[in-house]
């Protein structure tokens, strides 16, 4: 049985785990069989045009199967207007090269939705740990919602809203933690009261709808 980790920062080659490793544009992207690459909203700088040019060149690599992590983060308010420009351009790249988007969205849901209306590729909202009112519109648009280690915490919002997500729009991730994807699978299946084998097969099906690997 395989496990699918749609977003990780760690280079862990583990048998039976298919993981998409997020790399930065400054990194040597040789590590990891499958990778995503993007400009994180925390890393947006005034000279973003130079970084976008580097990013587009790297996106063309066959090893890059998704654009991101990219998006908007209102907590970094000092660069918010620049974030929108950089995010929009990354959506353009994703459309041009037909690679899915892995999206970071913090307290900028309406702005993300507005810009994502331009996307013509599958969209994954990663690290979901938000109240239903904040993410309902993403679900209605058919975007995929990715849950991570937060569901292991008994009182997390993530854990409470997981049962409201249509199972055909669900993905799982480890992000920047060293928690095993298997433990996240086990917890998610338990919370949804679904047989673990059937649950694994559903996540596998969702994954392959997005990533042509």
The CATH architecture comes to Alpha-Beta Barrel
The largest sheet, given as strand count, sense and whether it forms a barrel, is: 8 strands, parallel
The CA-CA distance between the termini, in Å, is: 17 Å
Series of H and E elements = EEEHEHEHEHEHEHH
The CATH first-level class comes to: Alpha Beta
Hey, roughly how much beta strand do the residues contain?
Answer: 15-25%
Specify the helix fraction band.
25-40%
SS-based structural class?
Answer: alpha/beta
Describe this structure in words.
With 213 residues, this protein is an alpha/beta fold. The protein has a single domain, classed as TIM Barrel (Alpha-Beta Barrel), CATH 3.20.20.140. Helix content is 37%, strand content 20%. The protein has 7 helices and 8 strands; from the N terminus they run βββαβαβαβαβαβαα. Strands 1-2-3-4-5-6-7-8 form an 8-stranded parallel beta sheet. The longest helix is centred in the middle third of the chain and has 18 residues. The two termini are 17 Å apart. The mean pLDDT is 94.
Structure keywords:
alpha/beta; 213 residues; 37% helix; TIM Barrel; 8 strands
SSE topology sketch:
Layout: E1 3-8, E2 17-23, E3 34-37, H1 48-59, E4 64-73, H2 80-97, E5 101-106, H3 109-116, E6 123-125, H4 132-140, E7 144-147, H5 157-161, E8 170-172, H6 181-191, H7 196-210
Parallel strand pairs: 1-2, 2-3, 3-4, 4-5, 5-6, 6-7, 7-8
């Amino acid at each position: 049985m395989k496990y699918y980790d749609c977003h990780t920062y760690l280079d862990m080659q583990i048998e039976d785990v298919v993981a998409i490793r997020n790399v930065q544009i400054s990194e040597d992207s040789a590590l990891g069989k499958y990778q995503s690459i993007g400009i994180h909203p925390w890393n947006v700088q005034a000279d973003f045009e130079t970084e976008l040019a580097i990013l587009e060149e790297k996106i063309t690599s066959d090893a890059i199967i998704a654009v991101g992590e990219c998006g908007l983060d209102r907590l970094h308010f000092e660069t918010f207007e620049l974030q929108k420009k950089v995010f929009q351009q990354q959506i353009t790249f994703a459309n041009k090269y037909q690679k899915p988007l892995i999206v970071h969205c913090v307290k900028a849901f309406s702005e993300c939705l507005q810009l994502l209306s331009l996307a013509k590729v599958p969209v994954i909202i990663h690290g979901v740990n938000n109240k239903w009112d904040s993410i309902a519109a993403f679900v209605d648009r058919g975007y995929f919602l990715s849950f991570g280690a937060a569901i292991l915490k008994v009182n997390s919002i993530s854990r409470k809203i997981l049962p409201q997500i249509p199972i055909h729009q669900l993905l799982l991730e480890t992000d920047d933690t060293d928690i095993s994807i298997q433990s996240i699978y086990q917890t998610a299946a338990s919370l949804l009261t679904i047989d673990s084998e059937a649950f694994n097969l559903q996540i596998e099906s969702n994954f392959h709808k997005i990533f042509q690997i």
